[in-house]
Amino acid sequence: MTRSRTTPAVICLCIGLLSGCTSDGTTQPPPMAAATQPLMDESVPPAARSACLAAVSNTANNGDVQITEMIFSEANSQVTVGVGPTRAPWRCLVSNSGVVANVMSMTNEGAL
Fold first, then answer.
1. Whether 62 contacts 47, CB under 8 Å
2. How would residue 110 be classed by pLDDT, with cut points 50, 70 and 90?
3. Domain housing 62
């Protein structure tokens, strides 16, 4: 009876798809996920942007506001506004004509 001997390189090759091993028996770190960049969709009309900045500023009672993300939609666009020096995120849903449908803090206020 012949007995086969399994080498570490063969083992690594067999499980390489799951663990990132290469054919020479060495390992590679898994690929890094791409950093997500905020979407700044310039299709969001200026009237919608201005309306969200004003609504968030009034609701948060803070004039230090800046748009951090914009996503256009034919129904209601979404504008994320950063408030204060730490740019606490607020979400604003707004029609493209500038009518604000909803303003909501995205901060976990229970942790504050």
1. no
2. low
3. 46-111
